[in-house]
Here is the input.
Amino acid sequence: MAHTEPPIDDDAELVLKVGQGDVPAYRELVRRHAGNLQRFAGRLLRDDSEAQDVVQETFLRLWQRAAEYTPAARVGTWLHRIAHNLAVDRLRSRGRLTALDDDEDPAPSSARPLVLLDQKRRAEALERALGALPERQGAAVTLVHLQGMTGAEAGEVLGVSSEALESLLARGRRKLKALLARPENLGETR
Amino acid sequence: MNEPLSIERLKALVSAYGAEPERFPADERAAALLLLSSSAEARALLERERELDVVLASADAPELSPTLLRRLNEVPVRFPPATSRTSGWARALTAFGWAAAAAFGVYWGAHSASLEAPTAELEIAPSESATELGDEELENIELALGTVDDLSEEP
Here is the structure.
């Protein structure tokens, strides 16, 4: 799950080719990054259709502006940053941005019982819990713990300092533990 | 040499990044490992977060929607490569050229109209070529962003 991003040089080389109109290089970048971008945008927007629009617009920008790419950041980070900005624009236009982190920290809890479940049910419970996190916490946890970005990269994507990123991650993890310990996630309602 | 790491700082790191020190910021990792090697309290902090790491590792790999994949593959087909291959300077010069032509047209139209035509008979007709260019640009963007939805519904 973690550290799935390909090496920087390989990706950057593909972007250079895309800048010259190379369609196979573009499609290879789609293959490598579109899934992660879709999950990330979905976490922020909580709407599959809107998330797909954001990913499409991100790759349209890649296709149009690949020639402007400078390898200051990894390609995956650059693409996530574009997707983040597009998603935030959508949230802002709907007046949803102010509520991004409007939550109360739940009481600390343990995810221990959940590790006893089988992989499939664990994954389903995790997906539900991630979907219940405030958007930016969910996005931070997704970038660092599911997609293997470093804290610095995730901070760059989300446009926050390393301290703010750590706060998002810590609150996100604390809330995840509480959510995962709920009876419905442990199959106790059946 | 790295500064020693306090137990409080390690607690903050573990709360954010979990029990795998390779996720910690690179400049604090060595000090964290040093503290972990010498402190049972530090190791206990790590153990408390390990269960959540196990659950997070259960996440399914992201699955790209087939509809989205088709839409993404249509982008290079639908969007004219010529536009994307033009350099920023060339685009700026082109835009400046059109703007200058449009400004000259407006000036010439207004000036000649005031000299040659009664105001009541004056019709403002936009430049045909400029209109076509705008429409083409809009159509390209719509094709790439909007009507691709239609394409996605094709069998």
Remarks:
- Residues 112-155 of chain B have pLDDT under 50 and may be disordered.
- Chain B touches chain A at residues 12-13, 15-18, 23, 25-26, 49, 51-65, 67-69, 71-73, 75-76, 79, 81, 83-85, 87-88, 144-145, 148 (CB under 8 Å).
